Amino acid sequence: MNQSNKKNLEFIKNAGVNYFLQDSPRNWFESEQNRSHRSLKDEDKDDGKLLKIQQIIEKIKHFDTPLKDSAKNLVVYDGSLNAKVMFIGEAPGRDEDAEGLPFVGRAGQLLNKMLAAINLKREEVYITNVVNWRPKDNRTPTDDEILQFLPFLQEQIDVINPDFIFLLGGVAAKAILSTPIALGKLRGSWHEYQSLQLKKTIYTIASYHPAFLLRSPQYKKASWEDLKMLQKKLNEKN
Ligand code: URA
Q1: Predicted pLDDT of residue 234
Q2: Cα–Cα distance for residue pair 160/80, rounded to 1 Å
Q3: How far apart are CA 78 and CA 30, in angstroms?
């Protein structure tokens, strides 16, 4: 285990995130009571991913947080459960809260363009956020909120089992890379995310959030370089 992952684990354990404290995984999937009945897409049928994601969604729904008081809709994911790349943002904004889907507002439209620029379609990647309820007035999630939602995010990573993770903005970078280092220093190189459950390393890039790029277009060039790094790795894999 490398040093940053050791620190990551210590940080998470000290924060009391139970998901990591089990010797063997908890069976989250026993109860079928709350299962929702979204219809199965053909590509999702094979290995039970949809059911597992639905179970995670139920857990998030029932997780007690004051964020629920002001939010309208839970926002968990969009895209494919068989995605090779997972994109992780910060938290839903107003449009996402209204629609119940991540990245559907202006930042989402830019994200779609960023994906298209490296020949990816929104439908073939998995898009989610660190926090799944909209913080009032779009404030940045607190460290406590990030930690409270982190186990749900880690479980999604374990179910989706992506080859690559692309972190959109500082909150996602902090959550997944567990570091206070600024995005400007983190971007431009590959990082390793260790999934204890999958027992594998997932290569991860941290780059600028599309909402930030809308406000500060001078960073688009750097963002494009990060996207090209991902595209290169994807091409190598194919
Ligand atoms: N910003 C995010 O971080 N996530 C969204 O879903 C929308 C905007």
Answers
A1: 97
A2: 9
A3: 25
Q: What's the token pair of residue 206?
A: 């941290």
Our measurement of the distance from residue 61's CA atom to the centroid of its chain's CA atoms, rounded to an integer in Å, reads 17
- Residue 175 CB partners (closer than 8 Å, separation 6+): 88, 130, 146, 149, 150, 153
CA torsion sign for 49, 175, 8, 62 is negative
Across the beta sheet with 164-168, what order do the strands follow? Answer: 77-79, 126-129, 85-89, 164-168, 200-207, 191-195
pLDDT for 196: 85
Closest CA to 211 of 76, 99, 104, 108: 108
Residue 91 near ligand 1, beta carbon < 6 Å: yes
Which is the closest atom of ligand 1 to the Cα of 75? 6
Residue 31 has a pLDDT of: 35
Q: Supply the pLDDT for residue 16.
A: 43
Q: Which of 61, 59, 75, 51 is nearest to 159 (CA)?
A: 51
Rounded average pLDDT per 10-residue block, the chain, 238 residues: 50 46 37 37 66 98 97 98 98 98 98 98 98 97 97 98 98 95 96 93 97 98 98 93
Helix residue ranges per DSSP H, the chain: 3-14, 49-62, 67-70, 94-99, 106-117, 143-160, 170-177, 183-186, 210-215, 220-237
223 Cβ inside 6 Å of ligand 1: no
Q: What pTM was estimated for this model as a whole?
A: 0.83
CA-nearest residue, atom 7 of ligand 1: 103
Q: Does the beta carbon of 141 sit less than 6 angstroms from any atom of ligand 1?
A: no
